[in-house]
Amino acid sequence: MGTLSARKDIPPWVKVPEDLKDPEVCQVQTRLLEAIFGPGGARIPYIEQVSKVMLELKVLESSDLTEVVVYGSYLYKLRTKWMLQSMAEWHRQRQERGMLKLAEAMSALELGPWMK
């Protein structure tokens, strides 16, 4: 999804400047971003509106992680951070299960020696 530029459009439910202080930060594997936020981040505005927060994504250059910065009132920030971490873990486990099923299916094929 790439790095998003600094936000200039602060949603009306975020109070300036108090909600912009002390954001909550969580790290998500970059490969899970599309599963969580939709293609090109299409679900970000919906998540922000429902959660009453503002999100900012920052791709970390030296790893496969992306920082998700959550701005808003204290309880909304914590709830949103917990929700995002839960979604990331669910998608990670789902992908892992899919890889295990694929490995099982491939071994179940028991390819003959001529196919190896």
UniProtKB/TrEMBL annotation:
Residues 11-95 form the KH-like RNA-binding domain. Belongs to the KHDC1 family. This is Developmental pluripotency-associated 5 protein. It comes from Galeopterus variegatus.
